[in-house]
Automatic annotation (TrEMBL):
This is Naringenin,2-oxoglutarate 3-dioxygenase. One of its GO terms (molecular function) is flavanone 3-dioxygenase activity. Residues 167-271 form the Fe2OG dioxygenase domain. InterPro entries: DIOX_N (IPR026992), IPNS-like_FE2OG_OXY (IPR044861), IPNS-like_sf (IPR027443), Oxoglu/Fe-dep_dioxygenase_dom (IPR005123), Plant_2OG-oxidoreductases (IPR050295). Residues 308-338 form a coiled coil. Gene3D superfamilies: B-lactam Antibiotic, Isopenicillin N Synthase, Chain (2.60.120.330). Its cofactor is L-ascorbate. PROSITE patterns: FE2OG_OXY. Belongs to the iron/ascorbate-dependent oxidoreductase family. Pathway: Secondary metabolite biosynthesis; flavonoid biosynthesis. SUPFAM superfamilies: Clavaminate synthase-like. Keywords: Coiled coil, Flavonoid biosynthesis, Iron, Metal-binding, Oxidoreductase, Vitamin C. One of its GO terms (biological process) is flavonoid biosynthetic process.
Length: 353
């Protein structure tokens, strides 16, 4: 049975690719670029940016070092094992409690912001140079994320810093995903369907591809085609709530394939746990998408318990389906036996004779 349920893959639709060249020229192209970003957030919640100013060499170093890490022998990787609640390091697959199928991936996570909470003992020091590259990468990506949040704040009619300020002390984690090639890719997902909980995510994916987004609640999936050197930008739940639902929190998943392993580096910008989640702007005639202000920690807790409940229901439905199938098989057999009595079956009179 396929767990993917890819009913259709919509290949005609494409999520936007936006060049940021000239975004800092106030009297130049800025307005035009900002308009594209805002429209992409309203329509999709997921798009790609090119000419973003992050050095190509830094991007290729990060990718190369990450690939080298995953190629290390298990004992080297497991030195950074983060199972058991350690903050940062390596883990094989991650899955929701109660889900029957595990994600087909290995990950390394770096908690990079606030900088005072950085624990370098949890940052893999092999291959050499990875710590330095990750430091620079996380700083540059924090800069790019804030730049994009400025655009969205302005579009909401607020001061530039409104969204970053609402995060209180912005949190960042860099998650390096490695999806090994999979002998039976239609039996599993690299990463199950989800929305990111935080404010804004920047994802670097290699040329293999596998990231998909849906705009119709999972009926069709659109592949986010890899663009060399681009970052995929997507908003998370926090960004969605703060804009009162105006900006979409992209619903997405990652599929695996049988020919190639795949690498992606997701950098999540999240609010501080105690930051308040509530729309910063409610437009005329709109109702708030949230009944009351809650903390980000509480928003996350509710999301997780909803996900667990959904996973439980899905599992129950699957068990019920299997049971129904078994019952249907039994019914069919009985029917067949009645219609075609076995030739060697004795007539009833003989049995009672
Ligand atoms: C994620 C994510 C997609 C990918 O890590 O949250 O959506 O393509 N990753 O790896
Ligand atoms: Ni995601």
């Amino acid at each position: 049975m396929s767990v993917q349920r890819l009913l259709t893959t919509n290949s005609a639709a494409k999520s936007p690719v936006i060049s940021l060249a000239g975004i800092d020229e106030v009297d130049g192209k800025r307005a035009e670029i900002c308009k594209k970003i805002v429209e992409a957030c309203e329509d999709w919640g997921i798009f790609q940016v090119i000419d973003h100013g992050v050095d190509t060499k830094l991007i290729s170093d990060m990718t190369r070092l990450a690939r080298e890490f995953f190629a290390l022998p298990p004992e080297d990787k497991l030195k950074f094992d983060m199972s058991g609640g350690k903050k940062g390091g390596f883990i094989v697959s991650s899955h929701l409690q109660g889900e029957a199928v595990q994600d087909w991936r290995e990950i390394v996570t770096y908690f990079s912001y606030p900088t005072k909470t950085r624990d370098y003992s949890r940052w893999p020091d092999k291959p050499e140079g990875w710590i330095e590259a990750t430091k620079e990468y996380s700083d540059k990506l924090m800069g790019l994320a804030c730049k994009l949040l400025e655009v969205l704040s302005e579009a909401m009619g607020l001061e530039k810093e409104a969204l970053t300020k609402a995060c209180v002390d912005m949190d960042q984690k860099v998650v390096v995903n490695y999806y090994p090639k999979c002998p039976q890719p239609d039996l599993t997902l690299g990463l199950k369907r989800h929305t990111d909980p935080g404010t804004i995510t920047l994802l670097l994916q290699d040329q293999v591809g596998g990231l998909q987004a849906t705009r119709d609640n999972g009926k069709s999936w659109i592949t986010v085609q890899p663009v060399d050197g681009a970052f995929v930008v997507n908003l998370g739940d926090h960004g969605h709530y703060l804009s009162n639902g105006r900006f979409k929190n992209a619903d997405h998943q990652a599929v695996v394939n049988s020919n190639y392993s795949r690498l992606s580096i997701a950098t999540f910008q999240n609010p501080a746990p105690e930051a308040t989640v509530y729309p910063l702007k409610i437009r005329e005639g709109e109702k708030s998408v949230l009944e009351e202000p809650i903390t980000f920690a509480e928003m996350y807790r509710r999301k997780m318990s909803k996900d667990l409940e959904l996973a439980r229901l899905k599992k129950l439905a699957k068990e019920q389906q299997l049971q129904d199938l078994e019952n249907a098989k039994l019914d069919a057999k009985q029917l067949q036996d009645m219609e075609n009595p076995k030739l060697d079956a004795k007539p009833i009179e003989e049995i009672f004779a």
